[in-house]
Amino acid sequence: MEALGAAFGLVFDPFVLMVIGLSAVFGIFVGAIPGLTATMATALMVPITFFMPPVPALGAIVTATAMAIFAGDIPGAMLRMPGTPASAAYVDESYAMARKGQLELNLGVNLVFSVAGGLVGVLVLVVAAPLLAEAAINFSSFEYFWLACLGLSCATMISTGHRVMALLSMLIGLAVGCVGIDPIAGHPRYTFGSVDLMAGVSFIPTMIGAFAISELLRNATHSDGGTVLVQEKVGALFRGIGGVARKYWRGFLRGSVVGTAIGALPGAGADIAAWVSYAMSRRLSREPEKFGTGHVEGVVESTSANNSALAGAWIPALVFGIPGDSITAIVIGVLYMKGMNPGPTVFLQNPQFIYAVFIIFVIANLLMLPLGWAAMKAAGKLLRAPRKLLLPVILLFCIVGSFAITNSPYGIVLMLIFGVIGWMMEENGIPVAPLVLGLVLGEMLEQNFMASMIKADGDFLVFFTRPIAGTLGALTILVWGWMALRSMRAAGSPRPAA
Amino acid sequence: MRLHPALLGLCFIALAAALFGYTYTFPAFPGQKYGPELFPRVIATGIAACGLTLVVRGWRTGGAWFTPDPALREPRRLISFLATLGAIVFYLLAAPRLGFLPVAAILVGGLAWWFGTRAWVAVAAGLVASLAVHWFFASVMRVPLPRGLFMQLLFGG
Predict the structure, then answer these.
(1) Same domain for B76 and B148?
(2) What is the ipTM of this complex?
(3) Which pLDDT band holds residue A228 (cuts at 50, 70, 90)?
(4) Which of A72, A194, A235, B12 could hold B51 in an S-S bridge, CB 3.0 to 4.6 Å?
(5) Which of B12, B53, B88 sits opposite A399 (nearest CB)?
């Protein structure tokens, strides 16, 4: 209780509240502009949060991402362009609704169910995280090794596109993580005599490059087409929401719970949650034939799912230090830089900090209601924001942000290299998110792997002797087997050229 | 720019070989079976296996070795692409000498103008963006942005 009081004190501080308010506006702006994603919002914000104490830093990230994921629905309905990939699953449905004259109902549903879904996710986070942390306190290197393995395997298993590509991306991330002083013997690896590389490949410039610069490069080559809005003025937003809620409350609950669970799975985030929920809603619906024609049911379920996934992703991040999605991958990087290694001990030593994250999540979701309403009313102006001016300013931000982390041009060079690598990867159908996950988890994986190997004296069977480690190990092998089976089956059947 | 899957696979196999080969330069530690070379070797093996899968899969599909992005065939977009990269290189080369403010203003203004903003708006955007970013990062966050010739001329030292 004392910790809870302290947490309220930490959050309800004028500076923290100001940061939350500003990041909310920033998040809505970035989310509503197609081509700028929630992950990019986080990447752009990290250099700024780098200079803040942990609570406002996390507050900024939590608020901006929650707003961005919700705001991505606005251009989806009005332009048929998802503002963030998390809205892509139901963008056609939303646009069809808008074409039918139900733009207000669609936007209202997106707003209200984003808030409600987000709150369900937070509730699960609040209940599940401390319980899991209690169990995790007894984990040894064996358990952590398997957890990291399981996380990385799930990340490749559920990622969109070819599994081999996701696996490659993850392995490259792990390889990049090897650069620098090795964690067991202290020998410099792949540094080629460079002092900068001795400290490893700096995480934040890498991520700004992979997520933001590659996105800017894509925007630079594809930035055309005027914005043709389906409708200029947005009318009353909350009319008819009650009816939708009464009719589809099951879908809402299912979407929120499934979304939280998918978010909690390492590597899978809001976009996958929305796809899965939309597909599930269609399969379980009483009127599946209406899907795709501007039917609100699928929108309810998937818009709840993507916002609940955000909170879900924080469960493994806070408890085990294993990111649930690419956003929490960044968060873990931030926590490490602030000397707060995520893991069950944080729950014991700094519970007020965990509670503060919970409170910020609730505030962010509640703040979404008025701010989201305002954003939708101003959507016409927001969506006409001049991209040709924004791109150069974002580029300048990326440069300064990368520089600020290393205080040297090294950060900018890293950003440039990984920007080009990220762009090349996406061009060839290799997803970027697993790379960042691999980079974040690399050191933890290696440390626990080497420690376990030394403890077990090279006997791999010892990795399975502890009950929880054994279970996690068996699960991991099951996932591997399933993936191998799937790819063998895929190889056997004729496939369209990739 | 898309590479043929088989070629892409070969690139990754080469990368894996380089990673693996380099581990032989790591020293062995007496009395310890596993040293700093173990983990990179496991990863390199994984990359090679994935590369091999791509080669095997790609063998059966036809197609060109390189497929350039159709957007990049248009000169204007190709220049936009190169200008974005060039702007970063320009900053890296010019900022230490000229200082942050003029270089940032040229970068934002120039790119905005190329992307199609009217000239005076581009100039104004360059000035406002560079001053605002400089104020925030240099004055509030205390990031040592390069001072360069510009600040020396203005403030001396």
Answers:
(1) yes
(2) 0.93
(3) low
(4) B12
(5) B88
